[in-house]
Amino acid sequence: MPFYLEIIICVSLLTGGAFLLIGSYGLVRLPDIYMRLHSPTKASTLGITGVLVASMIFQSHLKGFLSIQELLITLFLLITAPVAANMIAKTALHFRTKPIDKTQGQELMETIRDRKSTKPPHTPR
């Protein structure tokens, strides 16, 4: 394997590992669910992307052609992580999970919980 590929893979793995470590630390350290959503959706997504890019480069070199499995996993992760975080936040709002005093935007929580849908009601045919 050429030395420049080893350097690129090592940098990608180290960067991804650092983001994963920061995301894991944030998940443990942040005090409430609304703040904890930022760690897995931002830092951990970037971290796993770095690891998968390193894997894609390594596998592409071994096979001799572009390995797209890792690219597809990365795209799936980048699409689903924000959707999952949104669903977790909506569930926490629905169950009226109390934030800590430092959480910003608390005055909006009741408004968000009690708002009505803007879609017209469904009319059967």
Automatic annotation (TrEMBL):
Record's keyword terms, sorted: Membrane, Transmembrane, Transmembrane helix
Bilayer-spanning residue ranges: 6-28, 71-89
Superkingdom to which the source organism belongs: Bacteria
Residue segments, region Disordered: 104-125
Protein name: Na+/H+ antiporter subunit G
Source organism of the structure: Marinomonas rhodophyticola
